[in-house]
Design goal:
The complex is a heterodimer of chains A (115) and B (112). By secondary structure, chain A is mostly beta strands. Chain A has no helices and eleven strands. Chain A is globular, with a radius of gyration of 13 Å. Chain A starts with a strand and ends with a strand. With 112 residues, chain B is mainly beta. Helices cover 0% and strands 48% of the residues of chain B. Chain B is globular, with a radius of gyration of 13 Å. Classes of the chains: A mainly beta (115), B mainly beta (112).
Chain lengths: 115, 112
């Protein structure tokens, strides 16, 4: 298993540009999520999905869109990039988040800089 | 919601045991304690989790007090590669299911 994969590893955008961060998992996990991590901070939840066709907002959803058309993929779209979105983005997946005992697995991250 | 408290930083000599404490005094009876670590901005890595009993796996041991208000993660023979930020997390139910609430964790420095 490749686990959770993310592309690209690094990205530089100009203010106002749009782009999509890709996330894929091959573990047949129901739950997938996106976090952002700013320097010196913990991870904050952006959006999550409990299955194909179902998405919802996390703690910091503004400026981001998601969709989940397949179990494997969960792309994160920046509609109009802003410098405040400069961060490291992590995708995670787990078998199911609706149980107290469930382990999340994280991808390697995408480092995004918005100029 | 159960909240965790960890020291911001700790040092440990290579080859010695690293004992990382965590307080979670408001934990509920059915909430698990999870430990993750993050090595130099890589994706967080799962280490271990437990409910009541002490747990051990190939990476670490988890000691949970009888009243469940605190726990200790033990890395039995720390190596330089164990230098990382360690997060103690109690899973709490929110609108996004049983979310992982990452705080600032403990920055562990393993020295030669």
């Amino acid at each position: 298993n490749a686990g959770v994969t993310q592309t690209p590893k690094f990205q530089v955008l100009k203010t106002g540009q749009s782009m999509t961060l890709q996330c894929a998992q091959d573990m047949n996990h129901e739950y997938m999520s996106w976090y952002r991590q700013d320097p010196g901070m913990g991870l904050r939840l952006i959006h999550y999905s409990v299955g194909a066709g179902i998405t919802d907002q996390g703690e910091v959803p503004n400026g981001y869109n998601v969709s989940r058309s397949t179990t494997e993929d969960f792309p994160l779209r920046l509609l109009s990039a802003a410098p405040s979105q400069t961060s490291v983005y992590f995708c995670a997946s787990s078998y199911s988040t609706m149980t107290l005992e469930d382990t999340q697995y994280f991808g390697p991250g995408t480092r995004l800089t918005v100029l | 919601d159960a909240k965790t408290t960890q020291p911001p930083s700790m040092d440990c000599a290579e080859g010695r045991a690293a004992n990382l404490p965590c307080n979670h005094s408001t934990i509920s009876g059915n909430e698990y304690v999870y430990w993750y670590r993050q090595i130099h901005s890589q994706g967080p890595q799962y280490i271990i989790h437990g409910l009541k009993n002490n747990e051990t796996n190939e990476m670490a041991s988890l000691i949970i007090t009888e009243d469940r208000k605190s726990s200790t993660l033990i890395l039995p023979h720390a190596t330089l590669r164990d230098t990382a930020v360690y997060y103690c997390i109690v899973r709490v139910f929110s609108n996004s299911g049983y979310a992982l609430n990452f705080g600032k964790g403990t920055s562990l420095l393993v020295t030669p």
